[in-house]
Amino acid sequence: MDHKGSVRERVFQDLRQVAYPDSRFHFDFGEFIADFQGSEQATERLIQHPCYQNAKCLFITPDNCLELLRYRALQDGKHVLMTTYSIRRGFWLIDPATIPKDRWLYAVTLDGMERHAKPMTLADIKTQLPLLDCMITGTGAINEAGVRFGKGHGFFDAEWGMLYRIGKITTATPSAAVVHDCQVLTETLYPEVFDTVADVIFTPTRTIEVVNAHKPTCGIVWELLDAHMFETIPPLQELKAMEADLSL
Q1: Residue 93 and residue 71: Cα distance in Å, rounded?
Q2: Which of 90, 168, 198, 225 has the highest Cβ tally under 10 A?
Q3: Closest C-alpha among 62, 1, 59 to residue 32
Q4: One Gene Ontology cellular component annotation (predicted)?
Q5: Does the predicted TM-score (pTM) go above 0.85?
């Protein structure tokens, strides 16, 4: 974890030169995943990729650099499942068929989502949604082998673990990351058992395909889960109850 911290610090220094500040957290990259100069080009690369072209229902994290992607997905008639900041208010489904077109751009923001999207429990997702076609995230840093370092909280890995546990994704579900070129590392990094390695990385200048990306099958490793995350994230509590009830 100390090594991850030093990597983040180094990357965040470079990112500060190209990132856009957040309205809540300014340049505190430990609290949010930033949008950056060239994210439009990275988004366009992703949109042209088969993992997007063939998708009907996408999971897209609430990261700032993915706001345009969420909007473009609605324009393309796709369903978007996303979470609130830090997952504390759960999962939400953004369905373009139920939202006026002139509200789409607002609906894909954290504030607009809760006004226009449909809240989804894990039980709702399990029974009402098809298999998700792709999992898309921003991140703090990533190497060319797809090993990610986020803000240090593990939210995307928790989201993967929950959705995998209820059967909405599999090890064949592609995972994509959208980052600035300065966030891509060449050094060797090693994933933890619960880390979701990206199958493909999109930057403003490159599309990096990863071969045999590691996909965790452990669900949530409860003994390793931070107690504060469990106490403040209702979907984790719901999953724990579902497992206790043997409904999974």
Answers
A1: 13
A2: 198
A3: 62
A4: cytoplasm
A5: yes
CA distances from 86 to 89, 91, 171, 211 (A): 8, 11, 24, 30
**Residues 73 and 51 sit within 8 Å (Cβ to Cβ):** no
State the CATH number of the domain containing residue 105. 3.40.50.10420
> How many beta carbons lie within 10 A of that of residue 147, not counting itself?
23
Q: What is the dihedral of CA 215, 195, 67, 62, to 10 degrees?
A: 120
Written as one letter, the residue type at 223 is E
- Cα 70 vs. chain centroid, distance in angstroms? 11
Number of C-beta neighbours around residue 144 at 10 A: 15
What domain count does the chain have? 1
Tokens of 154: 């593990």
Contact 152, 161 (CB under 8 A): no
Alpha carbons 81 and 120: distance in angstroms, whole number: 9
The C-alpha atoms of residue 125 and residue 162 are separated, in whole angstroms, by: 11
**Tens digit of pLDDT for each residue in 105-136?**
999 999 999 999 999 999 999 999 999 999 99
Strand order in the sheet with 148-149: 148-149, 141-143, 184-185
Q: From start to end of the chain, where are the E strands?
A: 57-60, 79-83, 91-94, 118-120, 134-137, 141-143, 148-149, 175-178, 184-185, 200-202, 207-209
